[in-house]
Design a protein that fits this description.
Elements: H1 6-20, H2 24-31, H3 35-43, E1 49-50, E2 55-56
Amino acid sequence: MIPNDPMILLSYVNTKLRDSYSSLDEMCDDLQIDRKELEQKLEAVDYTYDEKLNKFM
């Protein structure tokens, strides 16, 4: 289960992307996370996924 708090979620996702996954799609597929829902949660606190850097900024 992923964190519900947006700022903790941000840290969790960026750490997973940095340490274990080469893309957001790969992470979402592996962890069975809805990518659109994840992006919406993080966009609500002004973070968007940067594909080149493989992290939310």
